[in-house]
Amino acid sequence: MRKIGFVLAVASFLLISCMLFAAPTQNVDEIVQATLQAMTAQAATDATAEPDSTGSLSGQLGYPSEAIPPLRVVAFDANSDSFYYVETSYNQGTYQISGLPVGTYYVVAYTLGGGSFPAGLAGGYTQATLCGLSVTCTEHSLSPVTVAAGQDTPNISPNDWYGQENAFPAMPGPAPSEGTGSITGLLSYPSEFIPPLRVFAFEVGTENYYYVDTIQNQTTYQIDDLPAGYYQVVAYILSGNYAGGYTQAVPCGLSVDCTDHTLIDVPVNSGQTVTGVDPGDWYAPEGAFPPAPVLP
């Protein structure tokens, strides 16, 4: 029995020795890689843990008209001379100003001009806005807005256009663009040839129009000297009132599935040539476009 016990003890010792000393050594490259991954994970954790030091403002836009002109929406820092702004396009209904340092602001929207809209008219986020802009809302002083770190402050709508003249600060930033630009595009016609055309650019919101005549099979056009503003483009055959327009159906591809034949408002800025304005929708229902103006 002692002999058997001695043999078992020796066997146990050998088994433990194998477990202690025969384990494979970990590869050095694996150790380095694991260390780098741990450091990267820690750095990412540290970066995400750092709070954002800026916030933003957003809201709805309005204007006392059937359309909303291009606007410059400005956030004035209530405690300094700093200001921040964004510019919007024709009929844009919302805005957002990002990257605002934490603090208190006053918000004013200014018209940028073009068409029938003069530049520099101002609407503010005021006590009248909070009141609902009814006839009983007579307090037009600007209402302070707080911007918090990493957050958007919503529903800041600078739609009080009814205050007294000079009730708000003058529009800061560069002057609105003035001067003229151009519109150009491709011509087409549902036939084997393109007849002579008269291509009009109608200024949105006014009775102004500009045009150019083309010859048979001319495939492009360009209308120059357009005052900065918004335009709708329609081509008419010179021998009648048949018309093709630059409509929503054109960027759609003019397939049978493209059923929206409303004219697109094309923005033109000073010194700019707007390309790709192709009045190729000859498939709109009758009356979709204005009749060709009678020239003197």
Q: What does this protein look like?
A:
The chain is an alpha+beta fold and 296 residues long. Among the domains are: 100 residues, Immunoglobulin-like (Sandwich), CATH 2.60.40; 95 residues, Carboxypeptidase-like, regulatory domain (Immunoglobulin-like), CATH 2.60.40. The chain is 17% helix and 32% strand. The chain has four helices and 16 strands. The strands form four sheets. Strands 2, 3, 5, 6 and 7 form a five-stranded antiparallel β-sheet that branches. Strands 10, 11, 13, 14 and 15 form a five-stranded antiparallel β-sheet that branches. The N terminus is likely disordered.
Task: Please give a handful of descriptors for the protein shown.
Immunoglobulin-like, five-stranded antiparallel sheet, 4 helices, elongated
In short:
With 296 residues, this protein is an alpha+beta fold. The protein contains four helices and 16 strands. The strands form four sheets. Strands 2, 3, 5, 6 and 7 form a five-stranded antiparallel β-sheet that branches. Strands 10, 11, 13, 14 and 15 form a five-stranded antiparallel β-sheet that branches. It has a three-stranded mixed β-sheet with strand order 4-1-8, with no helix packed on it.
